[in-house]
Amino acid sequence: MNSDTTINRAPVENSKIFIACCMALTVTSMTFAIRAGILGQLSDSFGFTDTELGWINSMAFLGFPVATVLGGLLYNSLGAKKLALIAFFGHMLGLILTIYASGFWTLLVSTFCIGFANGAVEAACNPLVAETYSDKKTTMLNRFHVWFPGGIVIGALISKFFTDAGFSWQSQIAVMIVPTLIYGWMMLSLKFPEQKSLSSSTAKNVKAVFSPLFLFMVFCMTLTATAELGTQQWIERILSASGASPMLILAMITGLMAVGRYFAGPLIENLNPAGVLLFSSIVTTIGIYSMSIATGNMVYVAAILFAIGVTYFWPTMVGFIAEKVPDSGAFGMSLIAGVGIFAVSIWNPVIGSWVDSARRQAEAQNLTGAAADLVAGQAALTNLTLFPIALIVAFTGLLLFMRSQSKQQN
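-> structure tokens emitted (410 positions)
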């Protein structure tokens, strides 16, 4: 099947495959939200420190880049469908192992499996969506990534309901088996066309990822991913004593992100991807800093600013690579996503140590309970502000560079 046939296949079939991809991404994001929601229960059940919780979290962010790098390299030979089915089996295995986990090491293994499955979803679906909608890659990738925050909304509300009702953390994990089975059935039943419109030479893809522009974006992705996901993954721990409901905040943040991504097209056309990234960095900085000093209802206001800031980071970074470094192909898109998540895996234990260290300092000053937790959470958020601040500098440079390139071409 040639590339023209692949791109111009029936719109109905395109739509079904797009829906299957969105369902798989929904499961991916539910794992992020529900894991964030059960951190307190895991700490109570097993007596984990925040540093140990950070290591468990980091396994999800480590498994992800392993899968995206391998999936990106194998995409040309395996195709999107096989990678999506690998994701399905990984999710099922990881969820079942998590439910029956007995301690720190078993949770490390099960969380790695879930992270690997999440990465396989990205490796399969990002290039598939970009290829299917080759004339509007960044816009459709933003619409696809609606379902990352969309799934977090679902997962956050489920986690809050189950926790408030006194259900176990295992039951929250078990809920995700249902949508996993649904997307697995969809992927298995749909007929996927051969994917040939992206650059099909793996050697060509690998060469392209060593270009200066790609390497610069890799560095930036480590910062955008940590600013977004590092903050969200720890939201229950760092905002638990703020006077606001962390899981409602997470649902609100990701709900706003979903709406923003769905209507991303006009913004991207008016500002261009580099302009969108700079705008996002500025607002994210204001949002995280505001959360670090807010209490009570003002936390919700600060969280809205944070949501507006991080909304376009992930899909615009992936879309930028698809449009500006097209020779990197599926491997480039998978690699940029994998690097971002790998960075979060490295920073997760560090964020946990920030919380532990700040709590110890607060206790040394005779603060206990909620007061110590509030100080610890605010200290962690203050440190997280450094990531988007660095991005303001980086994306200002990128915007100026892209404008100079555009002038030279004209």
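Residues 222 and 340 are 5 Å apart (CA to CA).
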